[in-house]
Design the sequence.
């Protein structure tokens, strides 16, 4: 049986993990490779590395880092942040990334989705959508790390992107992100029920019960979180045992 | 021992190379007929679309080469599918090493996504390729097409229906999942192949 996936996310700047991480097992918690290897050994199903490095020169650091990760990690990983061109994608895949995630660049130029899917295969094209529930009761797409609102409904954009060839959608609810009050179940379920691709839910996971909720009521195929794993508020082996005991298929 | 990875227009070839390096094996990525023929072990990886991949192989005579190899050959994902007789993906005649047909998953309800992406179990394991691998071990899959069960099936997985997650005939082995991304079990399967 295909299992639900648990995906820790690591924010990377200049080749280092950004969020303060407190793991006594690790010599250097700021080292993304050591942290990634730790999560892989804990039973993470995949990893996401989000590069928030601004400058082009520093992006070389990213491809070098991806290469080192690929030499160390025996589970799939996705790399996102600032990807705009086929060359960007090609460099990351050549260095061993399994998938790339695109966000603002894809919204501004949807044709790149089609080109990426044709050249590299849909299976490696993940569309990240930052979404926010507005007072009018609709979920809208936000760009540039949530700083710029659009007038496009999240369902419309997701559907268009699937038609253009994205293989998975990483959906982050800005209303829920950082709250630890649970994932956005309604929009996650709406996307998952209406689209043929897997939906990775992100934003709001604070307890093990929240993961159960997002895999059942939220109909998510995978769930992503960052700080609760980094700060060990939720440990992956314990989380997976909890889900397994509640009848959710997970890899143990 | 000389291990080669067949280079062609399909993705994920580097990932296989890195996976071998992780277990201390250096391999050569090549499309040279001579290098492939003289290798002890040949890995035929790939993700992508069947007809473009087959066309590329035919243009370089790699199709005839692969079919006639005598040393152990391991097809991975699309590589395994191309070793079958035919794929319904753009109605593609493939290498015909395995009799099994490759068909597209047909969803029965919206909650079942196509392609299958993620970790699923492998069962009914046969041959030394799976030596030391427990029944229902997890492997990582990414695919929208599958090989039906048949006489060459050496592992099965269930997604919508039971299908062949591994095939074997003579010196030819194929796995639908990605051993290079399947954690410890995947590493063991790669080691087992290299020990054949």
Sequence:
């Amino acid at each position: 049986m295909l299992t639900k996936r648990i995906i820790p996310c690591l924010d990377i700047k200049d080749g280092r993990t950004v969020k303060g991480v407190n793991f006594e097992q690790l010599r250097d918690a700021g080292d993304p490779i050591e942290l990634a290897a730790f999560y892989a050994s804990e039973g993470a199903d995949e990893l996401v590395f989000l590069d928030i490095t601004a400058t082009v020169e520093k992006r070389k650091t990213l491809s070098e880092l991806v290469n080192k990760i690929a030499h160390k990690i025996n589970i799939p990983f996705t790399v996102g942040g600032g990807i705009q061109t086929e060359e960007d994608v090609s460099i990351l895949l050549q260095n061993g990334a399994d998938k790339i995630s695109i966000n603002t660049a894809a919204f501004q130029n949807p044709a790149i989705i089609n080109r990426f899917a044709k050249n590299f295969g849909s299976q490696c094209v993940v569309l990240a959508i930052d979404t926010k529930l507005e007072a009018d009761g609709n979920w809208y797409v936000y760009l540039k790390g949530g700083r710029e609102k659009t007038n496009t409904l999240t369902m419309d954009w997701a559907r268009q992107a699937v038609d253009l060839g994205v293989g998975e959608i990483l959906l982050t609810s800005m209303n829920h992100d950082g709250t630890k009050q649970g994932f956005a179940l309604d929009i996650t379920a709406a996307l998952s029920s209406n689209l043929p691709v897997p939906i990775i839910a992100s934003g709001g996971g604070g307890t093990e019960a929240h993961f159960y909720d997002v895999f059942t009521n939220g109909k998510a195929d995978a769930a992503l979180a960052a700080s609760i794993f980094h700060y060990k508020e939720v440990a992956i082996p314990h989380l997976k045992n909890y889900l397994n005991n509640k009848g959710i298929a997970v890899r143990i | 021992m000389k291990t080669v990875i067949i280079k062609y227009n399909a993705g994920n070839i580097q990932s296989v190379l890195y996976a071998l390096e992780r277990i201390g094996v250096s391999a050569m990525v090549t499309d040279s007929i001579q290098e492939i023929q003289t290798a002890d072990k040949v890995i035929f990886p790939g993700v992508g679309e069947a007809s473009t991949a087959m066309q590329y192989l035919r243009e370089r005579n790699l199709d005839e080469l692969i079919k006639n190899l005598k040393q152990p050959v391991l097809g991975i994902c699309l590589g395994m599918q191309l070793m079958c007789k035919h794929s319904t993906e753009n109605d593609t005649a493939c290498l015909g090493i395995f009799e099994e047909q490759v068909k597209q998953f047909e969803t029965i309800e919206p909650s079942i996504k196509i392609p299958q992406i993620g970790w699923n179990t492998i069962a009914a394991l046969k041959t030394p390729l799976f030596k030391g691998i427990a029944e229902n071990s997890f492997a990582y899959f990414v695919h929208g097409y599958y090989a039906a069960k048949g006489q060459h099936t050496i592992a099965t997985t269930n997604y919508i229906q039971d299908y062949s997650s591994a095939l074997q005939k003579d010196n030819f082995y194929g796995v639908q999942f990605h051993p290079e991304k399947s954690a410890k079990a995947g590493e063991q399967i790669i080691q087992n192949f290299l020990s054949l």
About this structure: Residues 5-245 of chain A form a domain with the TIM Barrel fold (CATH 3.20.20.70). The longest strand of chain A covers residues 5-13. Residues 56-72 of chain A form the longest helix (17 residues).
